[in-house]
Amino acid sequence: MQEGLIGKGSHGCVYKGILEEDGKIIAIKKQSLGLQKIEDNSKLENEVSILSSLPENSFIVNFLGTSHPDESSKSETFLIMEYMPNGTLYQMLHAQNYNILPNWPKRAQITIQVAKAIQFLHQAKPNSIVHRDIKSANILFDSNWNPKLGDLGLALTMKNDCENSRSHPSNSVTTRPAGTIGYLDPAYTKPSKLSTKNDVFSFGVLLFEIMSSRKAIDVSKSPVSIVDWATKLIKEGRALEICDKRMHVPWYMEATIKNMLSIATRCVSPNKISRPSIEEVVMEMENVIIEPIKYPLWNILRGLTLLTRKRKRCRKNCSILTTNNVTKTCAQHERKLLIREILADKVTE
């Protein structure tokens, strides 16, 4: 069984399997040995309960059912999940192989699709679902490289956001705070602090990670927290320095990237009330990110307008300080730089 191991979740291991009936490749989630020994099935049962209550969604790893090796006793339960062949977002962002690094439009697409996955959970009926473990290792890619959110082992249901109402199921009141250090909301210190805004905080951390390819916690760097590092740069007006140094940032993506970083900053606000809801995040992203990516020609034309203005200013200055010949060379240099930026980005798409 160890040979088929493809990943580890918050409370178990995931293996690659094949259905006998039709030969379909599947993922099989098995409870960890530690939990088996103490006969703690709560996390697995919780995940089955939550996944069973949800309709199929293109942004969530699809739940296919359960299986029992010993049908007579049903002593152990396996979760049967959609097989995701292209690894995790964590592996993609922190890969040593530069060829698999996502380009900037792809990074923007990933953030929007993850936000929509969280939105789907938060808007679930009759009870909202808080994932509690939003992180790059829980974002998986299907055969078409579409990202999907997985591992709902720590998820909890709640009737209302705890910030606005005291009406919520008992499991969200009695279950201790959980999550992954670095992504975990510092405000989530006790069960009563459970909120959809906890997921929003984790999404903000993930957004910084997607933009920078820096780990949420990295003890080899200072500050060790990606939130402290990124928010400091943004306050100092150096937002673009957050971007992954291994990837060229084309000028026509700069505004989009700054908008994404602005959203991330609000998501990780220490004040939970100041954080946007995930619905607001999705709406803003669709307005300031999807349209520019969907219609890149508009971005290019806008950039050409700005570049023309720069050239006019440059010519004016050059005409005072230098000869006309130098002015012409300066304009030609800007044109070459512009074409190089566009071609360099297109190669990575």
From TrEMBL:
Residues 1-290 form the Protein kinase domain. ATP binds at K30. Pfam families: Pkinase. InterPro entries: Kinase-like_dom_sf, Prot_kinase_dom, Protein_kinase_ATP_BS, Ser/Thr_kinase_AS. SUPFAM superfamilies: Protein kinase-like (PK-like). Keywords: ATP-binding, Kinase, Nucleotide-binding, Serine/threonine-protein kinase, Transferase. Belongs to the protein kinase superfamily. This is Protein kinase domain-containing protein. It comes from Datura stramonium (Jimsonweed).
